[in-house]
UniProtKB/TrEMBL annotation:
<protein>
    <recommendedName>
        <fullName>DNA-directed RNA polymerase subunit</fullName>
    </recommendedName>
</protein>
<keyword id="KW-0240">DNA-directed RNA polymerase</keyword>
<feature type="binding site">
    <location>
        <position position="82"/>
    </location>
    <ligand>
        <name>Zn(2+) 2</name>
    </ligand>
</feature>
<feature type="binding site">
    <location>
        <position position="110"/>
    </location>
    <ligand>
        <name>Zn(2+) 2</name>
    </ligand>
</feature>
<keyword id="KW-0479">Metal-binding</keyword>
<feature type="domain" description="TFIIS-type">
    <location>
        <begin position="78"/>
        <end position="115"/>
    </location>
</feature>
<dbReference type="GO" id="GO:0005730">
    <property type="term" value="C:nucleolus"/>
</dbReference>
<feature type="binding site">
    <location>
        <position position="33"/>
    </location>
    <ligand>
        <name>Zn(2+) 1</name>
    </ligand>
</feature>
<dbReference type="InterPro" id="IPR034012">
    <property type="entry name" value="Zn_ribbon_RPB9_C"/>
</dbReference>
<dbReference type="GO" id="GO:0006283">
    <property type="term" value="P:transcription-coupled nucleotide-excision repair"/>
</dbReference>
<comment type="similarity">
    <text>Belongs to the archaeal rpoM/eukaryotic RPA12/RPB9/RPC11 RNA polymerase family.</text>
</comment>
<dbReference type="GO" id="GO:0003899">
    <property type="term" value="F:DNA-directed RNA polymerase activity"/>
</dbReference>
<keyword id="KW-0863">Zinc-finger</keyword>
<comment type="function">
    <text>DNA-dependent RNA polymerase catalyzes the transcription of DNA into RNA using the four ribonucleoside triphosphates as substrates.</text>
</comment>
<keyword id="KW-0539">Nucleus</keyword>
<feature type="binding site">
    <location>
        <position position="36"/>
    </location>
    <ligand>
        <name>Zn(2+) 1</name>
    </ligand>
</feature>
<dbReference type="GO" id="GO:0003676">
    <property type="term" value="F:nucleic acid binding"/>
</dbReference>
């Protein structure tokens, strides 16, 4: 089966998609149906485990988006005061490092950025 992508499996009883999970007692990979009790062992020749670890340099980790205050997916707070213009609304996001967590703020008025170490 080399060169072929993942094969979708379907339950012979309900025709629903089968999902992979570990049978911890037998230490095997099985496919199971979420609608009924059907399950089947996975063929060891079809097992494929892929792990992608992305390594970032310290410079890449410290890059902050240019205009985060216009990002509608970021949360906003009115519980901070901008050190530059004293406005009380800012967007914020976090970043975790080995040293701890850092909370980044960007003022919604002037765009000034600052951080708080949590």
């Amino acid at each position: 089966m080399t060169g072929v992508g993942p094969v979708l499996r379907f339950c012979p009883e309900s025709n629903d998609l089968l999902y992979p999970r570990e049978d911890k007692e037998r230490k095997k990979l099985v496919y199971f149906c979420r609608s009924c009790q059907y399950q089947e062992d996975a063929d060891p020749k079809e097992w494929c485990v892929y792990r992608n670890e992305v390594q970032h340099t310290s410079r890449e980790k410290s890059v902050v988006l240019q205009d985060v205050r216009s990002d509608p997916t970021l949360p906003r707070t009115r519980d901070v005061r901008c050190p530059e213009c004293a406005n009380n609304e800012a967007v914020f996001f976090t970043s975790s490092t080995e040293e701890g967590m850092t909370l980044y703020f960007s003022c919604c008025s002037c765009g000034h950025r600052w951080r708080d170490y949590v």
